Amino acid sequence: MKILVCICPVPDTTTKVAFSDNNTNFNTQGVTFIINPWDEWYAIVRALELKEAGAATDVHFITVGKADAEPVIRKALALGGDEAIRIDTDSNDTYAVAAQIAEYAKAGGYDLVLCGKESIDYNNGSVPAMIAELLDMNYIGFATKIDVAGTAVTTKREIEGGEETDSCSLPLVISCQKGVAEARIPNMRGIMAARTKPLKVVAPAAIDALSTIVSYELPPAKSGVKMISADNMDELVQLLHTEAKVI
Amino acid sequence: MSVLVLVEHAGGVFKKKSLEAVQYAANIAKGMNTTVTAVAVGNADNAAMQELGQYGANKVLHTTDARLNDFNSRAYTKVMVAAAHKEGAKVIVGLHDTVGKAVSPRLAARLKAGLVAGAVSYPDLSKGFVVKKNVFSGKAFAFVNITSDAKVITLMPNTYPVVKGEGSATVDNLDVSFEDKDFSVKTVEVSKASGSVPLSEAELVVSGGRGLKGPENWYVIEALATELGAALACSRPVADSHWRPHNEHVGQTGGTIRPNLYIAVGISGAIQHLAGVNGSKTIVVINKDPEAPFFKAADYGVLGDAMEIVPKLTEAVKKFKGN
After folding, report:
1. Binning pLDDT at 50, 70 and 90, where does residue B138 land?
2. Of A95, A230, A247, which has the smallest distance from its Cβ to B303's Cβ?
3. Mean pLDDT throughout B298-310?
4. B74-121 pLDDT tens trace
5. CA dist A101 to A133, A172, A233, B113, Å?
6. Do residues B127 and B19 share a domain?
7. Who among B186, B309, B317 is closest to A166 (CB)?
8. Same domain? B176 vs B211
9. Is the same domain home to B215 and B175?
10. Contacts of residue A162 in chain B, CB cutoff 8 Å?
11. Are B271 and A16 a contacting pair at CB < 8 A?
12. How far apart are CA A116 and CA A137, in angstroms?
């Protein structure tokens, strides 16, 4: 079984978001980029576990991004994996990203594509299902558990207000979240090995974006907190009723 | 040319968030001078489908097949593609939930339609087709212009209040020719928490953090939530320590929610937590640390020990409800 794990560089979770050029660009100055947590903690680690258990022969990482994405890819390779692919283009459009990955994956003969459930920057959560459609594969979203036996796959996944167990067979695209695996920290041997692992840079396919980000906006600042005395919870309830109108 | 909207039901009854999606589609349709067609899949109740007219649907296309009772993103996508072709639809609305997040991207890829996932506004047609959405997990908004001919939007639930109006929708069958592979994901088991409000749909949420000191103290949070009819949530350290199940974790690496009321108890308000909840309409913070950053993001604050304050608040809610 060949596994392709999609990874996305994202701003560190502590980043204070700011915009430049009249709010049309995300200001990356001083921003540290990390592997998207859902990719790193769950999709990557589960792929590595499947290889360690003998269920997978190859684990490849893929990302769509320019050369500045490479430190993040090396971090992924430090955790494990056999090779990484960087498709040399950048886009905020979900379709453009998914189609680039699907285009590469088609020729690669992958049996399982693992992704995080969404990226913490654009929060679309749409790339995994789009890849599934473009590769004509089944899709399991929001998996919390993945077991593979031969070509049979059993998953648990989050549904509205509960959990569902599904079975299906490879090939398959799965988006992963908490439960799928436990996060790992790369060790020194992994970090050294990552330096010499193959990182293929692939020219992008001719794919047009179907959307563009026109501008950004920060949420409106709160007008200031109204402090209520701990002995006056009746007043708080009244304010929630008459002023905030939420109860 | 009508605007298409996928509606979800449980046991034949349409969920509130689906009524919101119908109303949202109706508002878009009005701006485009066209009608709304809702698409219902599986054993939906006929009267309930007609009643979608009260929220702006002109027509409902209904596809039934025993195999549709298990959710398969391929089968649902096929239904939506068939409906889009039948109606000549160029704008298709879904919900930003586990169903919509699986179907809408597939549909968008199939139709080569630009997708806005998690919309929090109506499209601005005066500037093209510009839709506002959350980015950076709630730390900011982006205005996204869909440039393709066909357009797909998933609406963040609880964005607009649902208003019931007059009207009745006509119901037509939509025949779709399925293949075996459309049903190749088999549902083995479903377990649902009974009686509780799903967090993603909850209008009122009570959330606890490390300040509660341990899972044995959660009863005060639970009592308040029960009294309010609210859903429970928690911060990341609480989920990581297994005090509470991970599906209650809200924040940048948990769920993003936007309830009408978010009561945060013993949560300091780290930037990652705020990202997941700052879309809440009203925020109440209960914390014993006057320097807790959460107070800066709150509408109402109470300074003091959670174990004393929360039971008092529960009593006050009980008294208020009794009147």
Report:
1. confident
2. A230
3. 97
4. 999 999 999 999 999 999 999 999 999 999 999 999 999 999 999 999
5. 12, 14, 55, 18
6. yes
7. B186
8. no
9. no
10. 190-193
11. yes
12. 17
Do residues B15 and B131 both lie within one domain?
yes
Examine residue A243 and state whether it is found in any structural domain, yes or no: no
From the CA of B184, how many Å to the nearest CA of chain A?
A: 6
Does the beta-carbon distance from B320 to A122 stay under 8 Å? Answer: no
Q: Is residue B192 part of a domain?
A: no
Note whether residue A90 is domain-resident.
yes
Cross-chain residue pair B109–A179, CB shorter than 8 Å: no
Whether residue B197 has pLDDT greater than 80: no
B173: tokens are 């069958």
Q: What is the pTM of this model?
A: 0.94
The two beta strands, B36-41 and B13-14, are unpaired
Question: Does residue A238 lie in a domain region?
Answer: no
Q: Do A140 and B185 touch (CB under 8 A)?
A: yes
- Least confident piece of the model among A82-86, B264-268, B272-276: B272-276
What are the φ/ψ torsions at residue B6 (nearest 5 degrees)? -85, 125
- Total domains in chain A come to 1
Choosing from B183, B218, B244, the residue where a domain stops is B183
Q: What does the block give as tokens for A43? A: 């999709």
Distance from CA of A225 to the nearest CA of B (A): 5
From B309's Cα to the closest Cα of chain A, the distance in A is 6
Flag if B190 and A209 touch (Cβ within 8 Å): no
User: Which pLDDT belongs to residue B265?
Assistant: 98
Which CATH number is B214's domain given? Answer: 3.40.50.1220
> Which pLDDT does position B69 carry in this prediction?
82
The CATH number covering residue A206 comes to 3.40.50.620
Closest partner residue to A230 (CB to CB) among B134, B140, B308 is B308
Please name the residues in contact with B58: beta carbons below 8 A apart, sequence gap of 6 or more.
B2, B35, B36, B37, B169, B170
Residues B167 and B230 in one domain: no
pLDDT of residue B194: 62
Residue A194 placed within a domain: yes
Q: Which of B74, B75, B69, B72 minimizes the C-alpha distance to B44?
A: B69
Give chain B's radius of gyration (CA, Å): 21
Containing structural domain, residue A108: 2-222
Cβ–Cβ below 8 Å for B104 and A126: yes
Q: Is residue A174 within a helix (H) or strand (E), and if so which, with residue range?
A: strand A172-176
Q: Do B188 and A38 touch (CB under 8 A)?
A: no
Domains in chain B: how many in total? Answer: 2
- Across the interface, of A94, A212, A230, the residue whose CB is closest to B105 is A94
This model of the complex carries an ipTM of 0.94
Question: Does some domain include residue B193?
Answer: no
Q: Which domain holds residue B211?
A: 199-322
Q: Number of CB pairs < 8 Å for A and B?
A: 271
Two tokens at B217? 């103290």
Cβ within 8 Å, pair A124-B118: yes
